[in-house]
Amino acid sequence: MNNPAPDALDTFPKLLIDNARRIGDRPAVREKEYGIWQSWTWSEVKTNIFEFAAGLHTLGFSPGDKIAIVGRNRPRLYWTITAAQCLGGIPVPVYSDSVAEEMEYVLDHAEVRFVLAEDQEQVDKVMEVSERLPKLDQIIYDDVRGLRDYDKTQLHDFTDVQKLGREALTENPALLDAQIAAGSGSDIGIFLYTSGTTGKPKGVVLTNDNIIVTSRNSVKVDELTEQEEVLSYLPLAWVGDHIFSHGQAYVAGFCINCPESEETVTTDLREIGPTYYFAPPRVFEGILTHVTIRMEDASPLKQKLFHFFMDVARKVGVKILNGQSVPALDRFKYWLGNLLIYAPLKNTMGFSRIKLAYTAGEAIGPEIFDFYRSLGINIKQLYGQTEAAVFITMQPNGEVFADTVGVPAPEVEIKITDGGEVIYRSPGVFHSYYKNEEATRETKNADGWVMTGDAGYFDDNGHLKIIDRAKDVGRLNDGSMFAPKYLENKLKFFSQIKEVVTFGDQRDFVTAFINIDLDAVGNWAERNNIPYASYLELAAHPEVYKMMAENIEQTNADLATDSKMAGSQIHRFLILHKELDPDDGEMTRTRKVRRTVIFDRYDVLINALYDGSKSAHIKTEVTFEDGRTGAIEADVSILDVKTFPAVSKSA
């Protein structure tokens, strides 16, 4: 049988059929449950998906219908994406940690008829708002626990739907064939909702071509094959997971691995030892913080060995990774360091087999970036958006820099507007925003150029450097540039700082809110015999304020050498009495700060930063994990920090 041309494999059901034919015995997905890994081959995945698709058809699912998918990374949830597409339907993944009202908005806006919910928790959230969802018809669940006594009139077990499908396929084996054959790359493949940083989430409409062509191009650049192993732990509703755990997996034919739970991700990562890995900077920062904490608790001999060989790694590790020339003695030291330190450390982190790792979404600290690369881990940055099906830029091997995000990905064009905004067009450019023509026109022009909303420029190496959100770049009263995200990312490079919000636009100077990292600062407090009973108590401690002041002053000293940013040094700061939380509306589900909410909720503290106050009283409403609400009240201290005269780097 002749292999179909890649252009003919323009939908995921067609790719599934081809993978089952070519590499049917290879593992396509694994799931860990009760401590045991279970695998499904591509042939088995095809059977499961087709049975479920036929069952959906029996329940009345029709072309154009939408099915919401709510839950963690589970094989059946991934299978539902393709099952819906087999019938000409549209999957709509929803963030699993969405509260019922957030879920209601997406389900109503997308006009969802069917829902696949992972478990009782997700079913309960859907049923709580079901009366306000006139289009909702059927709910299907994956995990049966706790659902035995529920009214099953419109509630179905996944396995029961598959049973209906098996019966339907027995009667008509060609039930799905015509619809699959009729599918094309230009068909709508999925709705992915934005995180809603500045308002209600927008439904990004992506075609099959958007996902498949972009996946195919990136797989080719990174030389990914069916041999790769990926840990699928990021939200299904996020475009990154849809590309890395779905699009690229189908195109390359590699295996995705679903962890048992959020709590076991670190353990499962070590067990799987992925060859291909993606994580936002905060995950890489968290791993390094954990390593640092462990080393601080190690014996003096282990600490001495660790620091000696890490100095060797910092000196030559990146050069060795890039294939550059390194003196024989240094290469021997690095080999010995790998034997004693680097290899065991990578094994502990679960990175022993990493061929390629990506990070994106925020800037990553240069020292953090270089730490991983010095160990021989080929970590790269990319720049992307939901509206681009992820890839806008990529970093070629040998051209990996901590302060840039790479060059245009294959078939991607990038321009910088006169106003400094990054715009692009590519095969991944989204079809539209669902039911929002005005927003579509504002974001994508008639020639297919997408306005990213990010300010940036190409450096002397031809690599793109992102400064901040274009709308967030402001000016101090003296005319100095104020780029809040740039400042916040520099401060978050310190392991003791978890989150930052800076202020300065149309002000005389820059100030900041700080969220401490409870794990890092808590460990420091324990080693220094500083007692505390809560986040609030630790955050208010004078020694913690002293530590934060030192970090900010170090950042200010660095800013003083940057001609564009020297005027944006931070003059005053406070440590917030609580962590910024998505449940309190202060952050999106992808942990992006909602600045408008911060300005409104904490105006008392912002005013105090600028009126010379040494402290301010604040009372803040909070939402607990069980849905109850309460309040946290505190007197928050405000501290002045040292700033530095602007100097040139050559001075």
Q: What does this protein structure show overall?
A:
The protein has 651 residues and is an alpha/beta fold. The chain folds into 3 domains: 26-183 and 228-274, ANL, N-terminal domain (Rossmann fold, 3-Layer(aba) Sandwich); 281-468, Rossmann fold (3-Layer(aba) Sandwich), CATH 3.40.50.12780; 473-640, GMP Synthetase, Chain A, domain 3 (2-Layer Sandwich). It contains 21 helices and 29 strands. The strands form 8 sheets. Strands 4-3-5-6-7 form a 5-stranded parallel β-sheet, sandwiched between helices. Strands 25-26-27-29-28 form a 5-stranded mixed β-sheet, with helices on both faces. Strands 2-1-11-10 form a 4-stranded mixed β-sheet, sandwiched between helices. β18 (413-416) and β19 (421-425) form a beta hairpin. The longest helix has 22 residues, at 300-321. It is globular and about 80 Å long. The mean pLDDT is 93.
Strand order of the largest sheet: 4-3-5-6-7
The overall average pLDDT, rounded, is: 93
Number of strands: 29
What coarse outline follows from CA principal-axis ratios? globular
Radius of gyration: 26 Å
- The percentage of residues in β strands lies in 15-25%
Q: Name the helicity range.
A: 25-40%
The computed structural class is alpha/beta
CATH architectural arrangement of the largest domain: 3-Layer(aba) Sandwich
CATH superfamily of the largest domain: ANL, N-terminal domain
Termini separation (Å)? 70 Å
CATH topology of the largest domain: Rossmann fold
Topology:
Blueprint lengths: L11 H12 L3 E7 L2 E6 H17 L7 E5 L4 H12 L3 E5 L5 H10 L4 E4 L2 H10 L8 E4 L13 E3 H14 L5 H6 L5 E6 L9 E5 H15 L6 E3 L7 H14 L2 E4 L6 H8 L3 E3 L2 H16 L3 H22 L6 H22 L6 E4 L6 H9 L4 E3 L1 E3 L4 E5 L12 E2 L4 E4 L4 E5 L6 E2 L3 H7 L6 E9 L5 E6 L4 E2 L5 E2 L1 H9 L4 E7 L6 E7 L1 H10 L7 H5 L2 H18 L10 E6 L19 H7 L1 H8 L4 E9 L5 E12 L11
Helix pairs in contact: 1-2, 2-3, 2-6, 4-5, 8-9, 12-13, 12-14
